[in-house]
Inverse folding.
């Protein structure tokens, strides 16, 4: 059984933030949530999170039935942290045969790399994830004698020869849980930082004659941590580039892979095209042949096959039917469902409404809490007056209705099938089917009327 211990007690001072470091978001998701999700995909039976500073907030944000929260207070080092999280304490017999140590602030570690590390540890050895880097500064160095790992030396404790070593400790390791129970209580803190170093277990393993093996990540960014906003932004770009590459490899056309952000899950069919500066949040589905124009924000929505989202649209919790055209500059708010071949044009807002096949609202309209049938034309400037200041009411517009421009539909109200509303109508009662309904003052003209002229005579005295 695999026990996963995630170290997340560090304060993250360099973030200069009131938010605990591991709650800062990468691709819209907390750093620690990335690590938790990866741990779950490799089949962690049980996850222990060691928390410290701001821990209650972290726990409240990410608690789940498979997590045990372990407080580390004060924070005396990584060895001390893992000791706090030993399953059942130091004395009980371990039910979990090996322990994988992860860091809550190293969000992009991949499951495939962890699988390799776990395989390396199979048979009861200590497995370290190490990497060869050009700039090893700040990391613990892997000391080898005749190719065999003998210990890890921290930068601050290293001599010049050790500092020259370019194989670094990523901090991620797998150890037999029983061995951790033997070793961790014996760690000392007589070192440059006065901390209980987890890395000291390597020398203990060697002393016992245990094999110390190493595995390596596919890419160095997998093991990079977030200590500052600069590093957070850097890893965000790495992550977004990876997502963009995956999309392109699956056939999506991206006008610029550096100008798309996915904060959630984006699923695309065949021949989907996405123009620059688009943001996708939550779960978004773009069906075959759908295109998204520049500068759109799409959150939790489904865009049907062949639909076209023109530039500058904002779409949230909505469904756009096949072959529909939305925008430019349209806003689809939660609860919007558009049928097939629906046209929503510029400066049109739709909320909590259903618009059936072949209907159009092409210019400057507000459609809220409405049920609109097929082949309806909603004229420019039309609004549903759905709110009386206290309650919301529905507007029903049946099939084949023509609504003239600048109409107000004061809900609750129904426009019968095939009805026409004259431009400028304020509809307060139901409009019967197949008739013209118009409510506006009759037009009149005044013959001989003169436009007033400005008085140019001497000013009146007050
Ligand atoms: C550690 C390793 C070092 C490695 C580096 C990789 C040790 C002694 N050193 O160094 O070999 O190259 O990581 O980044 O392990 N944490 C706790 N409680 C503590 C101390 C730390 O939970 O008491 C957590 C931190 O929140 C962080 C992780 O452990 O997520 C690593 O701590 P950090 O202080 O960054 O370790 P380093 O000194 O950088
Ligand atoms: Ca560190």
């Amino acid at each position: 059984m695999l026990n996963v211990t995630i170290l997340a007690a560090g304060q993250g001072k360099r973030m200069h933030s009131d938010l605990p470091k591991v709650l800062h978001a990468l691709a819209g998701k907390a750093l620690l949530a990335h690590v938790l999700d990866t741990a779950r995909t490799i089949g962690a039976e049980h996850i222990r999170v060691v928390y410290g500073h701001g821990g209650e907030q972290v726990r409240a944000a990410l608690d789940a039935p498979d997590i045990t929260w372990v407080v580390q207070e004060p924070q005396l080092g990584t060895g001390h942290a893992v000791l706090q999280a030993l399953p059942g304490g130091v004395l009980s017999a371990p039910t979990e045969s090996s322990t994988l140590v992860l860091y809550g602030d190293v969000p992009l570690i991949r499951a495939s790399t962890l699988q390799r590390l776990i395989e390396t540890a199979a048979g009861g050895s200590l497995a370290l994830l190490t990497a060869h880097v050009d700039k090893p500064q700040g990391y613990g160095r892997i000391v080898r004698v005749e190719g065999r790992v003998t210990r890890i030396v921290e930068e601050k404790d290293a001599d010049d020869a050790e500092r020259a070593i370019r194989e670094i400790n990523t901090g991620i390791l797998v150890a037999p849980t029983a061995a951790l129970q033997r070793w961790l209580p014996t760690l000392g803190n007589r070192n440059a930082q006065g901390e209980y170093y987890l890395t000291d277990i390597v020398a203990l393993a060697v002393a016992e004659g245990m094999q110390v093996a190493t595995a390596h990540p596919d890419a160095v960014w997998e093991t990079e941590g977030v200590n500052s906003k600069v590093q957070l932004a850097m890893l965000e770009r790495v992550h977004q580039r990876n997502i963009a590459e995956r999309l392109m490899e699956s056939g999506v056309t991206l006008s610029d892979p550096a100008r798309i952000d996915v904060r959630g899950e984006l699923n695309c069919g065949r021949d989907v095209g996405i123009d620059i500066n688009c943001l996708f949040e939550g779960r978004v589905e773009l069906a075959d042949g759908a295109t998204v124009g520049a500068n759109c924000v799409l959150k939790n929505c489904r865009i049907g096959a062949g639909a076209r989202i023109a530039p500058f649209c904002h779409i949230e919790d909505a469904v756009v039917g096949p072959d529909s055209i939305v925008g430019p500059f349209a806003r689809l708010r939660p609860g919007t469902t558009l049928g097939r071949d629906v046209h929503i044009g510029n400066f049109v807002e739709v909320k909590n409404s259903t618009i059936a096949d072949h209907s159009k609202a092409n210019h400057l309209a507000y459609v809220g809490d409405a049920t609109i049938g097929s082949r309806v034309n909603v004229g420019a400037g039309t609004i549903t007056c759905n709110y009386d200041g206290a309650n919301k009411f529905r507007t029903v517009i049946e099939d084949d209705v023509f609504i003239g421009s600048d109409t107000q539909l004061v809900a609750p109200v129904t426009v019968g099938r095939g009805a026409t509303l004259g431009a400028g109508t304020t509809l307060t009662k139901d409009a019967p089917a197949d008739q013209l309904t118009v409510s506006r003052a009759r037009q009149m003209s005044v013959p001989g009327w003169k436009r007033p002229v400005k008085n140019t005579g001497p000013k009146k005295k007050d």
Observations:
- The pocket of calcium ion (ligand 2) is lined by residues 225 (CB under 6 Å).
